[in-house]
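Page 42, continued from yesterday. The earlier attempt failed because a stray header line got pasted into the input along with the sequence. Redoing it now with the clean sequence only.
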Amino acid sequence: MDLIETARKAYSEPFYVKDFSEHGQILHIQFSQFEWSQDILLIGFKKKILLAHLDLIDTIELRIVTEFSHPARCTTLSISPDTSLSTLPNRVIFCVGGNDFKIRIITSDLSESNTCLVIGKHSSYINDTMFDPENNYLASASDDNTVKIWSTDDYKLKSTFNLTSPGMNVCWHRSDDCKLLVAEKIGIIRFYNVDSETPIISIDYSKPLSSVHWAPSDRDLIASLQLGELLIWDLTKPCLPIHNNLLFTENGGNVKFSPQGELIAAVNSLDRTLKIVHVRSQAGKLTASVTLPTNVCWHYRYPLVCIGDDYKLCFWKVSAK
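This time it went through. Structure tokens are written below.
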């Protein structure tokens, strides 16, 4: 029995942990979703944002590059595809949603030039923001029952999609940049053509929704977390989910596909658990106890999953085999 318990403990322990107690509680994290900045990680706190770089040459090491002050509590982060540390001068562009309902675009060369542009305001909490892969648009979802689309040319408001309940997530796909996924708290998942500002298709499971993600490697595959139930949808036959799996006894949480689309990580702050399952078989690959988790993120290329857990940043290395 002791050997079994030791194996279970080793399996669920993080691969790498970094303490951020000196900065405060971690509120939100975001890995870059783009190739040229794939090792960049943003870490949001009450009054600041840290930009960190993940070094993966011999072993894993997280290096803090710089710190940005932010006047409000961070609720969401998104990195622009124009961000790169491999060019000179460096170019860093990211979006922050704050609990003052404002959206800020921070631009920096990590040297002398730093700007912060307040581009607009929702009338309630901002739950998600995301740049499209071609850097034409920024989408923001809010508790004010809207999703707003901002043009990245001048960061002016292009359009507003009115919803029937709070917007929980927005997501673009790498291979279809004009199509936007919008997830509503009431349980509806909508798709819009942003160029023409027209709805395409909607899915309704009739259960409250906390999180949705579009598989980066498969434009027909999405995952949703609804009342603790993990649902896998095939958009070629969207009438019913192809898989459903009760992961948590509590509502809420966050879900993300791995970069190759073989695994899904889900975390629930009320259940205090991180779970990773195989997409097709729904077999459990990892279960870890956490204290006060943030959203969950995967590295762009490698099978590394990350969450902020209270004052610590924790990484797990997970194989799909």
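Notes: Confidence is low (pLDDT under 50) at residues 1-10.
Reminder to self: strip header lines before submitting.
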